[in-house]
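Quick one: structure for this chain?
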Amino acid sequence: MGQVHHGSTTTTAAIRRAIQYSQDSSRQLATRYGINPKTVAKWEKRSSTADCKTGPSEPKSTVLSSEDEAVIVAFRRHTLLPLDDCLYAL
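Got it. Here's what it folds into:
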């Protein structure tokens, strides 16, 4: 089974493990793997080689209140209209 990486990742799990177990300096590792020394420092201090989750823990709308969002969801479920039609109807 293949690895799933973040879209802009520059390292693999194997490289991250090599960074964590290496005794070389951050600058040497950065040159060897063609990455930023800050990236090396980040992986040296982490205990895992997995990508951390990014973004908010609970996604929410920045435009609609929770009540408005609930009304829109109820309208769409009741009418079974496509999103574009719901936009025009509301």
